[in-house]
Amino acid sequence: MSAAAVDAVFAALADPRRRRAVELLGRRPYSAGELADTLGLAPPTMSRHLKALKDGGLVEDHYLPFDARVRIYRLKDGATDALKGWLAETESLWSEQLAAFKAHVERGAP
């Protein structure tokens, strides 16, 4: 995925309430109202957070067949793949840099 996709995920996860919502959605799907109640947020506030999570590509929603007024949110499959890839690349870069620094120090180079 692109750097823009990784940026969108980071932006969506920047707020602690959105991170908590992602943790909850990792356990099971929730309606917006259930999430708002669980997180102690007003429905319009929860709606804004869910929009940010959708924009970041982390969650998706669907309507109940018997009640189109209720949206059910769940984590999107593969939503964190871009982030995981970026973290793996960054970890590899840091590991290489630290290993090179360690070798340099152990050689006693000036």
UniProtKB/TrEMBL annotation:
Which InterPro entries does this one have?
A: ArsR-like_HTH (IPR011991), HTH_ArsR_DNA-bd_dom (IPR001845), WH-like_DNA-bd_sf (IPR036388), WH_DNA-bd_sf (IPR036390)
Matching entries from PROSITE patterns are given as: HTH_ARSR_2
The cross-references to PANTHER family, in alphabetical order and at most eight, read: TRANSCRIPTIONAL REGULATORY PROTEIN
Q: What is the lineage of its organism?
A: Bacteria, Pseudomonadati, Pseudomonadota, Alphaproteobacteria, Sphingomonadales
Any GO MF annotation of the entry: DNA-binding transcription factor activity
Superkingdom of source: Bacteria
Q: Which residues form the HTH arsR-type domain?
A: 1-95
**Residues annotated as transmembrane:** none
- Name of the featured protein: Transcriptional regulator, ArsR family
Tell me what organism the protein belongs to.
Sphingopyxis terrae subsp. ummariensis
**Pfam families noted in UniProt:** HTH_5
